[in-house]
Each structure stands twice: as structure tokens, then as C-alpha cells.
User: What shape does this take?
Amino acid sequence: MPNRPERSRAARGRRLSAEVAATLEKEIREGVYPPNSRMPTEALLMERFAMSRAVIREAISELRRGSLVVTLQGSGTYIAATLPERSVFALIADDMDHHELRYIYDIRREVEAGAAAQASIHASEAQRRDIAMALDQLATSMERKGDSVKYDLALHQAIAVATGNHYFCDFINFFYNRVSMAISTARQHSAKDAKLEQIVQVEHQNIVDGIINAEPEEARAAMRLHLTNASRRLGLFSASPKVSKC
Assistant: This one.
């Protein structure tokens, strides 16, 4: 398991790449880089922002995930011909307090519970096998003390794909990209207690069982319970809701 300084450096790298991505997105939307134009090279961006190649590459990856740029192998990175509308969500992980994370998990619980139910109804046999395989890979990564966050995401993505509705996939990817530190924190907490880690895996197993057995309400309830418990493991239930206006 990475030590604290390594985790701190990783978190700082993610924060810096998010800052670079936000600056570039603003410039793209303001027309500094017109549609179909070529982005500056990595070397130029490294010089401009005084950042490492890894930070710049992650920032470009973030823009690519947001469909703002496309990368053509051997040619470079180009601004998309048509820019996507700005998301109704604007999440910056470093700005989130417990209240904001609680709101996010409230949304995840409702939407992903529905995704689990939909997957249990619409998943093909191949997709059910993919979900079962993702669960096995998560279990293996936990046993080997590997990158369980990566495989946790892979399982939730496989479930979203099995719904047959690409908006579930977009939702999962959007939130996981922005709250990965919170998920990592929850995983690190669970990893300190073998019994707790087993409980988390049983929660995942119950979700998968509901999907594999085509039992939508069981899958829905299992996902709701898992994300409710995940919120508790992050201490989010101790955060009282703030007064908010839509």
C-alpha cells in the first residue's frame, strides 16, 4: 500500500491536472482554441504551466473524457468540431466538503440502484458474465492488496453498460472521475479491517446475484444498501444537510 507521502503526491498531481484542464476548457469554450484546431504540444503546455508531462497528459485525458478534444495517433490532439454543452454539474473534488459528498452519494444511491435493477432486466448473457468477471477481479485485487478502486469502478461500469442505456454509463464515469479520492479513502479505510473488507465484498456479491438471477428489486435494494453503507463508512451521514435552493 502506498505510504502517506506517495498518496499526498498523487492527490496533488490530480489537483494540478484538474486545474490545468479547467483552464484549457475555459479557453476552448471562449474560442482561444477554435473547433478543429490543433492543441499545443505537450512540451509547450508543460512549459506554459510549469507542470510535469504526467500532469499535462492527465489534463488532456480529462478534456478527452469530456469530449472537448480528440487525439489522433501520430498527428496530435485537436479541439472537437462541436463542443458539448457545459455539464449541469460542476464538481471539483478538492472543493467538496462532507455536505457536498453526501449530496453526491445521495444521487448515486438513487441512480445506481435503478441501474442495477435495469441491468437485471436487460443484461445479455455476455454482459452478465462480464459483471461476474468484474466481481471476481475486484475480489482478487483485494486479496492481493492491489488497486481495488480501479476494479470497483470496473464493476459499476459493467453494471451501467448492462442497462443498455448510455446515460447510466455517462453518469458513472462523471461521478467516479470527480470523487475518486473519496472512493479511494473509503477503500483505504476498509482495507485496514479484513472483516470490513469482507462485508464490502458481500455487498457487491448481493448486487451481482440480483442481476445474474434477473431479480430487479433485489438488485435495486442491494445497490441502495451498498451505497448507504459506503456513505456511512465515509462518515457522510454525520453531515447534516445544508439549506439548498434549486
Remarks:
- The mean pLDDT is 82.
- The longest strand covers residues 69-72.
